[in-house]
Amino acid sequence: MSTAPTQTPGPTTEPGGGIKHLVDYGPLVVFFLVNFLVPATAARGIVSHFTRALDGMAQVEMLLMARVILATAAFVIASAAALVLAKVKLGRVPPLLLISAGLVLVFGGLTMYFRDARFIQMKPTIVYALLSGVLLGGLLTHKPLLRDLLGTTYPGLNDAGWRRLTINWILFFAAMAIANEAVWRGAYALYGKSRGWDLWAIYKMWVVIPLTLIFAIANVPMLLRHGAQLGQEPPLPPEG
């Protein structure tokens, strides 16, 4: 009597990969599209309909701030929706997403209340610095924080691999915090508020996301050398 051959289970994959990327990066895409596709005059009309935040501003400053406020409001709403979607579709809200969305709500609110775009532009700096600092603290106190977050993603990864991966992300997050400050402050100094804001928005969409993806993929050879069994694309942190 023959028996059916046993199959060796392959690497596990995390369910909901497409939903996770939508949750992580959807709010940033919404922010970018609203900022660049909604005409400034239309943005001014929408903002003026709901708030008096633009009262007393000169014409040029009013048009810029209308775009800033509308794009920021869309960012805040999309971030809140991402939290709900994560809970409904994934069954949980990832801690990093919760931190990022919480800071979006805080700094987005400050941007709209004080009519100052710098609040929302500083938010990624704080997110990256916070992530880098928390991982560094875990490394120094021998607490494997990254392994606790991503342990099921990299089965087989040994302790040396987790340490190397943690160090790599600490350095990456620190570099991204510095880069964000350099980009938005430098763009303002060189091109003024309006063009500086647009250049920063372009940087967020078309530089930050590809850089993060490239960095995550660049870690794969190191992970394999340390025993990781990769059955899916490298996980990415939520946008800053």
TrEMBL record:
Role description: Plays a role in cell envelope biogenesis, maintenance of cell envelope integrity and membrane homeostasis.
Name used for this protein in its record: Inner membrane-spanning protein YciB
Transmembrane region(s): 25-43, 64-84, 96-114, 126-146, 166-184, 205-224
Compartment(s): Cell inner membrane
Membrane topology: Multi-pass membrane protein
Domain of life: Bacteria
Subcellular location, principal: membrane
Keyword terms of this UniProt record: Cell inner membrane, Cell membrane, Membrane, Transmembrane, Transmembrane helix
Keyword Cell inner membrane: yes
Pfam families: IspA (PF04279)
Keyword flag Membrane: yes
Protein family (similarity comment): Belongs to the YciB family.
